[in-house]
Amino acid sequence: MTGDIAKVNAATKALEFVKDGMLLGLGTGSTAAHFVRLLGERVRQGLRVKGVPTSEATRNLAEQVGVPLLEISQIDHLDLDIDGADELDPQFRLIKGGGGALLREKIVAAASGQMIVIADESKAVDVLGAFPLPVEVVRFGFALTQKRIAEALRATGCAGNEVTLRTSGKSNEPVITDGGNYILDAHAKRIAQPEALGAALKNIAGVVEHGLFLGLSRTAIIGKAKGAEVRTL
Ligand code: 5RP
Q1: What's the gap in Å between 20 CA and the centre of ligand 1?
Q2: How far apart are CA 66 and CA 69, in angstroms?
Q3: Which residues line ligand 1 (CB under 6 A)?
Q4: CB neighbourhood size of 153 (10 A)
Q5: How far lies 77's CA from each of 40, 108, 202, 213, 219, in Å?
């Protein structure tokens, strides 16, 4: 519950960065959902913004709370992207994709003038990798891709190299992303060289995108039980 209050506090602080007329990237996950709900309240009070959602879940929520939306095909630049993270290190390198939305999240972050990460304190780590790194892969040949990803983990000095297919439900069906792909979770344990691992993963046939967000954010809002701290690089 404390974590949830901290997430609300981070999301509330992020509203201070939103200005009238902005085009916004709307992240995915529970922290980003708090932000979208709060943004909906501001819109009902007269704030004029438009958002591009990073998942179908966020699209549904934004529609429910009345945030006007655009399709990504209608824009070529966003002013500000607000999104959560599974881990962030002191250089604001991120692991994202716990909610499976990493592909759209990365496209939206890359199209934004600024990305602000909103997270509770538990997400701030010294070294990335305790949270399994999500990698979105095409379904065709995914078992081969899984092996190549394990090799990339080994080659770049990660502490672990187990790679698992993300499943859900009682029948353990593979999770299918909004893009129609699978998610492989790479249990790196400790990612010694995030840039090298990111480059190695991008080089594997079958990998659509990985959840390392490198050099995309220079501002993080860390929510706490009371209030939130704005950190900048
Ligand atoms: C979804 C994400 C989320 O931002 C990440 O999983 C954090 O989620 P939460 O705010 O629920 O802790 O990357 O793909």
Answers
A1: 26
A2: 9
A3: 27-32, 83-86, 96-102, 105
A4: 24
A5: 22, 9, 24, 18, 19
Closest Cα to atom 2 of ligand 1: 97
The per-residue pLDDT for range 79-114, each reduced to its tens digit, is 999 999 999 999 999 999 999 999 999 999 999 999
In whole angstroms, what separates CA 23 from the centre of its chain? Answer: 18
Q: Provide φ and ψ at 119, rounded to 5°.
A: -160, 155
Which stretches of the chain drop beneath a pLDDT of 50?
none
Burial 182-200 (b: 16+ CB within 10 A, else e): bbbbbbbbebeebeebbeb
Of the chain, the end-to-end C-alpha distance in Å amounts to 29
Helix axes 194-202, 142-155, angle to 10 degrees: 150
* Ligand 1 atom nearest 211 alpha carbon: 13
Whole-number Å distance between alpha carbons of 185 and 98: 9
Assess whether 121 carries a catalytic annotation.
Answer: no
pLDDT at position 169, please?
A: 79
Instruction: Look at the alpha carbons of 151, 156, 160, 165 in this order and tell me if their dihedral is positive or negative.
Output: negative
Mutate to test the pocket of ligand 1, among 5, 9, 31 (most ligand atoms within 8 A of CB): 31
Pocket test for ligand 1, best of 30, 55, 105 (most atoms within 8 A of CB): 30
Tell me if residue 44 falls in helix, strand or coil. helix
Q: Tell me if 31 sits within 8 A of 118, measured CB to CB.
A: yes
Mean pLDDT of the chain: 97
